[in-house]
Amino acid sequence: MLSNWLYIGIFMVVALFLPAAAIFIAGLLAPKKANSIKNSTYECGIETVGASWIQFKAQYYVFALVFLVFDVETVFLFPWAVAYNQMTLFGVLEAIVFILILLGGLVYAWRKGALEWH
Amino acid sequence: MTFWSDPDGFLANWLIHLLAGIGIPAGIAQAIGYALGAAVLSTGALLFVLFLIWLERKMIGRVQDRLGPNRLGPWGIFQSIADMLKIFTKEYITPDGADKVPYNLSPILTVGAVIMVWAVVPLAITVYGVDLNVGLLYIIAVGSLGEMGILMAGWGSNNKYALLGAFRAAAQLISYEVPMVLSLLIPVMLSGSLNMNKIVQHQDIWYVLFAPLAAFIFFITSIAEVGRAPFDLTEAESELVAGFNIEYSGLKFGMFYVADFLHSFTISLLVSVVFLGGWRGPGAEASPLLGFVYLILKTSLVNFIIIIERASLPRFRIDQMMDFTWKVLTPVMLILLVATALLEKTMAMAGLVPWMRSGILFILNIVLLFVADTVVRGHLARRPRPDVRGKERPVARPENYFSQPGSGV
Amino acid sequence: MTSLQIIFLVVAALTLVSACLVVMTRRIMHAALWLVLSLMGVAMVYATLQSGFFAVVQVLVYIGAISTLIIFAVMMTRNVMEDVGPQSNRGWGLALVGSAVLFGGICGVLLTWNGMQTALIEIPAVNGENIQMLGLSLVDPMGFLIPFEVASVLLLAAMVAAIFLTGDIKRSRS
Q: Chain C: residue nearest A118 by CA?
């Protein structure tokens, strides 16, 4: 069991090392002729106005929050789904109540217009 | 144990014996074996991308009535290798004011996150990276690392287009992850395991026959997770120039390109493993090689559909795209989940045999698809449309030109 | 020292160093990215404890959802890059002493506790799947049925509250 996670760890290191090595080797082969025009921020030929790190609207935040709620919900549902075959009808109904409460949340978000992209 | 019945175990055994012969203890030998296996699998996946790029260019060319690459080698098959050699010698242009560490880490993380999925995918009966008992959740979790890579690219580039593209991409990824994860609950329910090997071994009847709608929704949302047409808003040339990777050049850009193609093949692989029976097929239990061939055939079929669909469908608008996942896919998937859970439990208690259960669930899925389609169509038909008739619209008349013709500007 | 202990020490150091950098860095976006690394370290600690489900859930929820949420929240603030104010207030010495005493106290209590010396027993598994046990206990009336349903209501409340608050922002702007 632990050796499984050791393998995942080794795999992670290898999976990150390969692209890093490729980028490094290409960096050795590539020419390096930087100049200030070339390095300027690309904005279709127009000079950048103001800072690039602009302020975003709350819209993104709402979507992330609704996503977070559903993500946590599925984390609860995965163990339930694994145990599904061992379960009585009562257990299934419990999970359905769980899902329906959250479906209510989705309907609320929908009615309040939180799911509209402006 | 021979090579043909268990290639994975055979090679591992051979390696451990070889290393023990030169005095390396078994524990370290095993770790070396793991590292070699991981290196072979990931290098194989990365080199396979060369073929995928050629294939996609060729096929899109055919769809658009062109020849596609046809100069280098038979049918232009070596074109990708030439492209790879070229991109290795291209200069890296780092924009002024870039946040160096996230900027440089992002392409590595994006490719790494895609490769890491391959660690748990069973390629044949005994051939897999690792037999992880939470394999399916691992795949979803690794996907969220890729999302971090995109956000880091957008942040590090010091470019408004990149930042906007990255944030839109992140919003798209998290929104489509909801129905995707919900659709994966159904195979987990049917097989009673999160282990990829057990999910494959449990598919005496392919899960696409138990839950065609869930398979379809998983397919759609996976395409959105990759950011391919029709969900390629993140690289919308006309509005965001190229999305989050606009400031990347040379192999750093190439890495995003590689990640894109490899990811599209990986989702084809996942669709085949989770819904199309993986390596299952006649005679596949006895011969891993045959199972591998079956898996590649199924995966190629799904990948073919993805490419054809990329060539045929126009791009969504961002509000349409968000509406599609939150107001269509998520509710449909929740209802399907509830209905499947109830029906399957009732049928299991009534003692129906698997093929009858799959038939009834198939009908349920089709009915639900039809109802959802009717509701959405009805809603779209009732929606008020902006009236553009009779309005003055800008036309390219000479007096509207910024510079008069003949003035030399 | 076994190799597992070495791995644990490396992972723990990674987690703690990046957690410190979360509060020490000046750019708020960098703080968010260090937080991601710190949370990843926690996931690795779960993996060394052979608790695969929690390792994966840690990545899925904390990196996939909560970090994204935090980064979106960071981008809602102004002056993302140029924070020039002091990084600590006058009471930092007192806080240092307080937290050191608290840490020492917790260590002392834990070291005298019997559980520190006994090895953990493995959770009994059904067909080699201890996630199945978790799933069964979630819907067991004698187990965690009430917390399971209350969690659903809690999630609903969180969603309603968030939508209510941001809805207010929208109204006040227009």
A: C170
| Residue among A1, A95, A114 minimizing CB distance to C139 | A95
ipTM of the complex: 0.90
Q: Cβ separation of B193 and A82 shorter than 8 Å?
A: yes
Residue B25, φ and ψ in degrees, nearest 5: -65, 160
Interface test with B, best of A28, A40, A42 (most B CBs within 10 A): A42
**Distance in angstroms (rounded) separating the CA atoms of residues B117 and B271:** 13
**Cis omega (within 30 of 0) for bond into B230:** yes
CB contact under 8 A, B338 and A99: yes
The Cα B40–Cα B32 span in angstroms is 12
Run of H or E including C139:
none
Q: What is the pLDDT of residues C122-160, one digit of tens each?
A: 666 555 567 888 888 888 888 888 888 888 899 889 888
C-alpha pair distances (Å), B218 with each of B32, B213, C59: 36, 8, 21
Q: Residue B282, SS3?
A: coil
Find the residue in A nearest to B34 (Cα): A7
Q: B195 to chain C: nearest residue by CA?
A: C129
Residue type (1 letter), C15: T
- pLDDT, tens digit (0-9, with 9 covering 90-100), for B26-74: 777 777 878 888 888 888 888 888 888 998 888 889 888 888 888 888 8
Residues of B in contact with C50 (CB under 8 A): none
- CA–CA separation, B244 vs A17, rounded Å? 23
Residue with tokens 């599609």: B324
How far is the CA of C71 from the CAs of B109, B192, C74, in angstroms? 17, 36, 5
- C-alpha C132/C-alpha A80 separation (Å) is 7
| Residue C8 pLDDT > 80 | yes
Contact present, B153 and B245 (Cβ < 8 Å): yes
* CB pair distance less than 8 Å for A84 and B341: yes
Identify the residue among A13, A94, A96 best suited for mutation to test binding to C, counting C beta carbons within 10 A and taking the highest: A94
Q: Hey, which chains touch B, using 3+ CB pairs under 8 Å? A: A, C
> Closest Cα to residue A108, out of A62, A60, A61?
A62
Which residues neighbour C150 within 8 Å (Cβ) at sequence distance 6 or greater? none
| CA count, 13 A, side-chain hemisphere, B304 | 7
CA angle B148, B152, B153 (to 5 degrees): 120
| pTM for the structure as a whole | 0.89
